[in-house]
Amino acid sequence: MSSPLRPPARARTKPSSDRPDVQSGSLESSLLRLINDHQTTAIRLREHTEKSKKEAIKSASRVSDLLVEAVNGGVEESFVNEKRIEVEIRALKGTIMRFAKQTDQWLASTHAINNAIKEIGDFENWMKTMELDCKSITAAISNIHQS
User: Fold this and answer.
1) Are the CB atoms for 140 and 133 separated by under 8 Å?
2) What is the pLDDT, as a whole number, of residue 134?
3) Contact (Cβ atoms closer than 8 angstroms) between residue 20 and residue 13
4) Is the confidence at residue 111, as pLDDT, over 50?
5) What superkingdom heads the lineage (predicted)?
6) pLDDT tens track for 21-49
7) Residue pair 40/74 in contact by the 8 Å Cβ criterion
8) How far is it, in rounded angstroms, from Cα 83 to Cα 98?
9) Which among 21, 32, 118, 137 counts the fewest CB atoms within 10 Å?
10) Residue 92 and residue 85: Cα distance in Å, rounded?
11) DSSP notation for the chain
12) 83-108 per-position pLDDT tens digit
């Protein structure tokens, strides 16, 4: 399996002592070429790693932003609902206060009516008593006058 960043594998060569036709200069140039290839590959790999790291950070940042937006959407909706509920509570509180005041007025009115009815009843009893007293006095005067 070969990576696009790595050069294809090379066949191993025999050491120069086994190959009399290879000079020591070509061995050095081969070694230098291997070192250069290795450094180039290492640099490319580092660049690729850095690029992948930056992409991963961007992706993680985007995921984080999306998660924050999703959570904030619910929080924002809750906040709006809370404000709406507070407005309704204030309105209901005003209505309750108005009804309580009206109820107190009705209680005062019914208490006044009850007292008036009691007074009418008391006045009626007083009138009956006075009528009886007047009849008694009239009867007494009639008896005195006839005697």
Assistant:
1) no
2) 92
3) no
4) yes
5) Eukaryota
6) 445 679 889 999 999 999 999 999 999 99
7) no
8) 23
9) 21
10) 10
11) ---TTSPPP------TTT-TTS-HHHHHHHHHHHHHHHHHHHHHHHHHHHHHHHHHHHHHHHHHHHHHHHHHHHHHHHHHHHHHHHHHHHHHHHHHHHHHHHHHHHHHHHHHHHHHHHHHHHHHHHHHHHHHHHHHHHHHHHHHHH-
12) 999 999 999 999 999 999 999 999 99
Q: CA gyration radius for the chain?
A: 56
The answer to pTM > 0.90 is no
**CB neighbours (10 Å) of residue 16?**
14
d(CA 70, CA 64): 10
Q: Report the distance separating Cα 103 and Cα 97, nearest Å.
A: 10
Pairwise CA distance, residues 103 & 95, whole Å: 12
- Counted residue by residue, the chain has a size of 147
85, two tokens? 């509920």
- Residue 78 one-letter amino acid: S
